[in-house]
Design brief:
Elements: E1 6-8, E2 11-13, E3 17-19, H1 28-37, E4 41-43, E5 61-65, E6 72-77, H2 86-99, E7 104-109, H3 115-127, E8 132-136, H4 150-153, H5 156-169, E9 174-177, H6 186-194, E10 199-202, E11 206-208, E12 230-233, H7 238-255, E13 260-264, H8 270-278, E14 283-286, H9 288-293, H10 297-312, H11 331-351, H12 363-371
Parallel strand pairs: 3-4, 3-14, 4-7, 7-8, 8-9, 9-10, 10-13, 13-14
Antiparallel strand pairs: 1-2, 5-6, 6-12, 11-12
The protein binds flavin mononucleotide.
Residues 20-23, 45-46, 75, 77, 79, 81, 108, 136, 139, 177, 204-205, 233-234, 237, 264-267, 286-289 line the site of flavin mononucleotide.
Length: 373
Amino acid sequence: MADLSTTVDGLKLPNPFVIGSGPPGTNANVIGKAFDEGWGAVICKTVSLDASKVINVQPRYARLRTADSKEIIGWENIELISDRPFETWIDEFKQIKDKYPDRVLIASIMEEYREEAWSEIIDRCQQAGVDAFECNFSCPHGLPERRMGSAMGENPEILSEVCSWVMKAAKVPVWAKMTPNVTHIEDPSRAALAAGCQGISAINTIRSVIGVNLGTLRPEPTVEGYTTMGGYSCKAVLPVALRMCMEVAKLIKDEFPGRSISGIGGVESGNDAVQFILLGANTVQVCTYVMKVGYRCVHQMLEEMSAFMDQHGFNSLDDFRGHSLQYFTTHHDLVERQAAARAAAKAESQAIRADAEWRGDDFVKQTDELSRG
Ligand SMILES: Cc1cc2nc3c(=O)[nH]c(=O)nc-3n(C[C@H](O)[C@H](O)[C@H](O)COP(=O)(O)O)c2cc1C
C-alpha cells in the first residue's frame, strides 16, 4: 500500500488530511475524536485573546441543495471565530498535547492590528505546546469591522507588517490563511511569504449571499428578519479553490521554493484531495464535509487516495505533488498548439494519399482516413 505520510515544514503527519478551522475543531473533545479517527492533523477553531468581544447569532448557517436529490452542495455561514475563553483554550491545548503528544495540533489565531496582541497570543499558545500556527487573515464577516480577519488579508501592506510581527514571536511553523475575496491571491500570499511565513493555507470562505426566501422576501440566513454578508464553502467552491491553489503553487515555485501549501475548499473525497496535491498542495483541509457527515469520512478518503497512488504506481505524495501544474498555459498557446496538431494531422493524411505510403499494418486506418477526405 502507498505511503501517505508526509513531513511539512518539519511537522510529521501520518497522512495529508487536516481538519480545517471551524466547528470540527471547536474544543478538546472533538479534536480528540478527529485524532482517534485518523486525521493527519487538526487546526482548531480560530482563537483570540478576548472572546467576550465575539458574539454569535442563530441561525448562522444556510445551505444550498440540488433540485432533484436535495444534496447539499453549498454552505453559507455567518459564524464568527471561537467565542470560548482563551484561558479555556490554553488548558485544552495542554490536555490535547498530553493525550496525543505525537499528533500535530495547529492553533488558528486571529488578533487585532497591534503587535503586542499578536506576540502575546503566540507566546501563550506556544507555551501550551501547539505544534504550529495558522493565522486567520481571511474571515470574511464580523471581524473586519475590528480590522481583523480578511481586513488584513485583503491588504498586502498590512499583511506584510502583521506577518513580520508574527514571525518575530513564532518558534514553530506559521501558515498564513488567505481569503479568496481578492483579485489576485498571489499579492497577499507574496506579502506573507516575503515576511517569512512557512506556508500558505487557501482558501477561506467566499463572500456570498446564498439566497432570498421567496415567501418572506428576506435573505438567508435570516436573523430577526435581517442578514449580513456570509462566507460560502462546501462542494461548490472546489473549482475556485483549485484555481487559487494552482496560482499560489506557481508563485511558490517561481519565487519561494520550498514553502508549503495547505489546500482548502470543497473537499469531500480522497480524489478531491488528490487534485489539490497534483496542483502543488502539501496538505489538504476539510471543514464543511465533516459537518455534513462526521469525522469517519477520513477512512474512505485515505482509501481513495491510496487506490489512486497504486493505480499510477506512486509510492509517496512527493511522486505526484505539483505534477499537473505543467499543463497550465495561456489561451494563446492553446490556439497555437491546436493549430500545430491540426496541421500535423492534415500532413499525415495527405502523405498516405501517395501510393508508396500504404502500409500493411495500418491499412484499415489509412483507408478510413481516405474515406473522410
Ligand atoms: C461554519 C464554519 C465556520 C468556520 N470557521 C472558521 C474559523 O473559525 N477560522 C477559519 O480560519 N476558517 C473558518 N472556516 C472556513 C474553513 O476553515 C474553510 O476555509 C472553508 O470553509 C472552505 O473549506 P470547506 O469547503 O472544506 O469547508 C469556517 C467554515 C465554516 C463552514
